[in-house]
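Today's session is about reading a structure prediction critically. Students often jump straight to the picture, but the first step is always the sequence itself: look for stretches that repeat, for charged clusters, for runs of hydrophobic residues. Only then move on to the predicted structure, which in these notes is written as discrete structure tokens rather than atom positions. Here is the chain we will use throughout the hour.
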Amino acid sequence: MRVSFSSEASDLDLLRSAKGGDYDAFTALVDRFRPRVYSMSRRIVRQPADAEDVTQQTFLSLIEHLETFREESSVATWVFRIATNHALKLLRRQRTRHEIALDITDSDDTYSSLPHPDYIAQWQDMPDVLAQRAETAAILNDALVGLNEKYRVVFVLRDLEGLSVKETAEALELTESAVKVRLLRARLMLRERMTRAFGDESTRVISNHNHPTAAPANEGGKP
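Below is the predicted structure for this chain, in token form.
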């Protein structure tokens, strides 16, 4: 007979019970994390079948390595670290490792290398209004697909799954500084793509990154 665990039982309580051999506790833990692991995996690997494979591999690894969890991070961080590793392994089988490397020494992980926006315009509606539209989610998902994996993974964990900077860094084995820079780059790139979709062309500002100048005080020679 399966034991029903209260929704108030903490992740750590469930994991400790599972480590003690309580299969029902492990099942409850899987039930709790499966939707989030699948959602995260789907955003990283994109294909539903691949996301399901990552999800299954995540919980197989979890049960195989229960004894290795030392409670130095949250259970959620540990689970997402395992899931992220499986997602990246799948991508590495599909592409070259260089394309999706999460190297903390990446030259892009500095604020001096942040991208400059090329498309600047006022949005046609307020963000909260746009967020209620179904097309907005579709455009955001398309924009996410266009991001390099190393930026997409950070954005998914931090902004979509709600992990802290520290938890994201632990899950990806990055420095917190690298997470902050990659997150900012992801946000800037996504904002530009969303602006191209929802920006009012009549308000577009032509940017000049190389030689920024102020508008002349006397346009057209008027005093």
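Discussion point for the tutorial: Residues 11-100 form a domain with the Rna Polymerase Sigma Factor; Chain: A fold (CATH 1.10.1740.10).
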